[in-house]
Design brief:
By secondary structure, the chain is an all-alpha fold. About 75% of the residues lie in helices and about 0% in strands. The longest helix is centred in the last third of the chain and has 31 residues.
């Protein structure tokens, strides 16, 4: 049996096949024969489509709209740590100066 050459299907074709699979009017085997693709391929396309479905309705946009980290809080923390660092540097310099005087 000769292997058939690798085919690249258009997104429109994939969408048509997936919609037919989601409708459930025919089995995967029937759809495979109708569209001349393997049943496993139809299942993969269907799983991809169902997984990406929430993104179609803006779930990704809503997630990106709210930043994962509060920038103002981080800037405040940086300022706080800078002050602490400066304080400890001054303490270290004073400590060294006191040791030199002894």
């Amino acid at each position: 049996m000769a292997r058939r050459p690798r085919r690249n299907h258009s997104p429109a074709f994939k969408a048509k096949v997936v919609l037919a699979a989601i409708r459930g009017e025919k089995t995967l085997s029937e759809l495979a024969q109708e569209f001349d693709v393997y049943p496993n391929q139809i299942k993969q396309w269907k799983d991809q489509a169902l997984e990406a479905m929430p993104d179609v309705f803006g779930a990704v946009q809503q997630a990106q709209a709210v930043p994962a980290v509060d920038i103002k809080h981080l800037h405040a923390k940086i300022g706080e740590l800078t002050l602490e660092n400066d304080f400890f540097v001054r303490c270290a310099h004073q400590s060294r100066a006191a040791e030199r005087k002894k």
